[in-house]
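Newbie here. three chains, one complex. Structure please?
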Amino acid sequence: MSQTNAQTAAPYPNRLESSPRLRSLKKALGRFFQNKLGVAGGLFLLILVILAIFAPWLAPYNPMKQDYMAILQGPSAKHWFGTDDLGRDVLSRIIYGARVSLKAGIISVAIALAIGVPIGLISGYFRGFWDEFIIMRITDAMLSFPSLVLALTLAAVFGAGLNNAMLAIGLVYTPHFIRLVRGQVLAQREREYVEAAIAAGISHWRIMLRHILPNAWAPIMVQATLSVAGAIISEASLSFLGLGTQPPTPSWGSMLSEGQGYITQAPWIAVFPGLFIFLAVMSINVFGDGVRDMLDPKLK
Amino acid sequence: MKTLRKAILPFVVIALFAFLAACGGQSSSNGGSSSDAKSGQSASTRTDKSKLVIGLDADPPQLDPAMSTAAVDRQVYQSIYNTLVDIDKNLNYVPELATSWKISDDGKTYTFYLRKNVLFQDGTPFNAEAVKFNFERMLDPKLGSPRLSEINLIDKITVVDDYTIRIHLKQPYAPFLSVLSDRAGMMVSPTAVKKEGKDFANHPVGTGPYKFVKHVKQGDLVVERFDKYWGNKPKIKTIVYKPFPDGTTRLTNLISGDVDIVNTIDYKDIKRANSAVNLKVSSTESLGFQGIQLNTKVKPFDNKKVRQAVNIALDRNAIAKVVFFNGVVPATSPFPETSWAHPSDLQVPKADVAKAKQLLKESGLNNVSFTLKISPSPQEKQLAQMIQSMLQQVGFKVKIEMVEFGTLLEQIAEGDYQAARVGWSGRTDPDGNAYAWFTTNGTLNYMKYSNPEVDKLLQEARTSLDQEKRKALYDRVSKILWDDAPYIFLYYPKDYKAMKNDVEGFVHVPDIMIRTENLQFK
Amino acid sequence: MVRYLARRFLLMIVILFIVSVIIFSLVNVLPGDPARLMLGQEATPEALAALRKEMGLNDPLYIQYIHWVGGILHGDFGYSLRDHSPVLKTLLQKIPVTLELTFFSFVVAILIALPVGILSATRRGRLSDYLGTFFALSGISLPSFWLGILLIYLFAVKLKWFPPSGYVPLSENFGKSIALMILPAITLGTHLAAELTRMLRSSLLDVLQSDYIRTAYAKGLLERAVVIGHALKNALVPVLTVGGLQLAAFFGGSVITETIFGIPGIGQLVVNAILTRDFPVVQACVLFMAFMVVVINFLVDIAYSIIDPRIKLGEVSKG
């Protein structure tokens, strides 16, 4: 579950100027579309999002509908991805599973951002005892735990279920963002414009929110995007081990664990959900790389 | 040069680890071998006939029969311990540590004549004093033995002479012999208990054909032939028990690994086991029942009509077919077909959704919903989802909650549940399947079910020694339980054991135990 | 220099302390009564009360914490709730297993990453580069449990080349041990291989542009010798450092692989312990894993400070 953490130490160039901004945005987009892989990734993501949102219209069957006459059937014209051990259509379950995975990915990261960004901002800006000894050491401590084990323990504490799993994953990712944001803030606050702003009497909060944060936003977004991929795998892992989504809700991870027992007689039950996890994660990674390149090609 | 040093450090670290790994590591084998990865190993290729590997479905938690609460450690007890009496394929009682016995006419006094020249594996002689020690140990409330409730009717124990012991009961108790054929009758060495104290469970000593050698948690449990065993000298020198919690893995290691026999296979794997050319499969009906436990003290199951609705709404035949591939028998009472108490006239009804809806309406409740707690195995998940779907058609809203088995038992004991998917492994005597479960304040009555008529019938049944009379009583109990429905009986499990073709001497007794002393290779 | 190290050491202790507090708090919030879990379905109320008293479950939490830490410093990690065996003994049995898996995964990762990374960087823009980059990309995205299941299906069930699961220690039977390790090592090592490939490629590319390489070219040495001799040495450094740090992460990452392949290592131990609410085992395992990470990080810090004088001044600090 070790996500490629953007070890970004180099600070970003200041982009506060506005009309050149529009020009550079266009240039950036142009760069993005040159990256064919990134575009492909983005496209697949779009497809997933559409599947997730329009699942009720797109799925051929009700994902919960059990058909005891049709259990463990292989892919056929009637069931493109086959059926599982209760006769449910695998394709429909995968489409609804997209909802779970995307939801898990996005909300977990949102939680991590919601907690991590403010802490990182304040900690990096004000520094001092609280920052150096308390917050950073707690962050270090949390980062010392293997992420899956920590997520598992948290999920066991909170109880089973998707919501608790998302909370657990979000908490596991929070220290990463605290560190990242803090690093960005540390780099930015040495800059002249910050000194000038302080001298001019602008309040600290305004400086943090109006000036520092917008400049730090880019690497945060890149990291957030890549973390969504990790969060999807984390949710799948948790569901695979029994915490996370509860039956009968289809989740790619729990489908994989159900399929494991039938790998000899009905491999499609495990193969397809895993394939989708793989493709989703890959598209996010590739898309994220594309976004990173778009924002600053020097960072390659 | 500096860069070289930088680069070398991780290598040094890795090398250090590799060194540790190579030296460390107990033989915590979990199965699997490379040489017979190809299936179809025939008997003639077996070179080592002195070692037998048994695949278990879980790792035995501890090895003291007085403290046993799991089902899987009982398999290991078959090797290490003997019981006072044993049972055969037809559930008749046969001598083991007791060569014969007499029951007084009033059914309250049992006299056992013990086998002579039997030694415990640590050299202690087996005699009446040892038996007395064992019973007193289990009866001691400070020990907290789960066996206490099985033998608490013992009033007095008298050592008549070295090889005769007399047990006086407070009242007649028909199931007494059956209890002594299980863990309450397993004799442990008094010397060992005095020496090890609480740690006896990790250093077990019995009179059985194999003595304990070592146990690596989640790994190998090794026992070795006891040369001074009183019975037939076992042909196989070493037996290794290995845990495989996952059914598919267990079977795969039996087919293409070094496992020789497994204590159970998943129902979905029956076909695969049958079609493997190097295996044979033995099956028998077991002694237990499985179904759904309902908490009659909380909503919605304090309402009898609701319980009856659930009872009639479930399609037991479909469940048996889809989840268990017809490897189980649909159930309507606590007594499976192996038991003489089985009510042959209580047929398995077809699911009646209309009647269920009617009952639900009559109950007076609307929008009935409840949580079904299950242990987190794939089979339980599948079963629970079927139940959920069937009940949904009737108008129930069912939520499934997966709870780890130990925690589940705890929650049930504390009444913290509405419905739970829990069953019973069963006992040889029908009383063992009913009394503790369905009498008011029964030790296993976590449904808090109370019916004075049932209490009366079960009490009478356990004191009478007339089997016909008892059967009539149990028939009435079965009918009342079907009507009251505090427990929804779903199926009687069958026991499937698969083993390599050259494993001989296995007798499939309905208590599903692997009796190792007569096993050998062809 | 010594001051720097002393400071880092102190920090390490602080972190370890916080780690232990976090673990202890988390585990003690886990629902479940340890006494009942130990005694089982048929336990009597008296036995439960007695056991609770004996285990100190009625003491306030901070006292329980002090007992726990005190125990650990004496080598007493408590007893498993499931089978009453000493946790330390179990840990010591399982750790070498995970180490073995980690070692082989590492070997696999390096065996893949080195050639692919080098080829990809030296033949930039050509097919091998695209393939290599694609491999790196997919390897990072591949969920290890899916890969594991696929490998079992393909190689153990269909082709029957390898046994499906299980473990035999090296000391017992070398051949069997290796055969059983191959599929799990590939599963666990692939992700690392992909990351290493990526890093190796990019750092190699950087190094290949530098002046002294071009000087070497100009001197007329064989291309291969140039690459291997100079570029690799420099490019390897960040790669191996990342690899070394990943080593510590393996202890947690092996959880799923060990579960799928039935390898009785720490990963499997901690998962089972969490799922069965075996608190003492969970505490000890997680503490151990975090401990490994912290200590390895510290060792890498030491190594860096010995080698790179800039760091001694505390300039390039973490975060």
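Moderator note: The mean pLDDT of chain A is 83. The radius of gyration of chain A is 22 Å. Thread marked as resolved.
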